[in-house]
Amino acid sequence: MDLQTLLNERNLSKYQLSKLSGVPKTTIMDICAGRSDMERCNAKTVQKLAQALNCTMEDMMKLSSTYDGKGLPKDRSYLECGLPEFLQESIQAMVKAWQKVDNGENYTLWDCDYCNLQSDINSAEVN
Question: Which residue intervals of the chain are DSSP H helices?
């Protein structure tokens, strides 16, 4: 379970949680969106959220297990759904290019893959 699911179950908005806890709404939005992880929050923030949600700090920390070490959701099945085939191919080419660069390969065409991806994104938006 993640923070957004917990809020949905308790019929609370991010704004309401912010008012109840005293934690800035932007912090709560970042946690729900996966841009920030509960593990990166200071103890006072976790405590405020736990008190507002009537749970323990340990329960709050369990919410972070739905995110990877980079603060992104582990379940990414909702991403890149319904994209045109040409855009999916460009995304895969860019992923392969990043893997090559990350593995230390001398892959000099990654910028071409990037430009192709950006072009395909623009085409998909227009069409």
Answer: 3-9, 14-21, 25-33, 43-53, 57-62, 85-102, 110-126
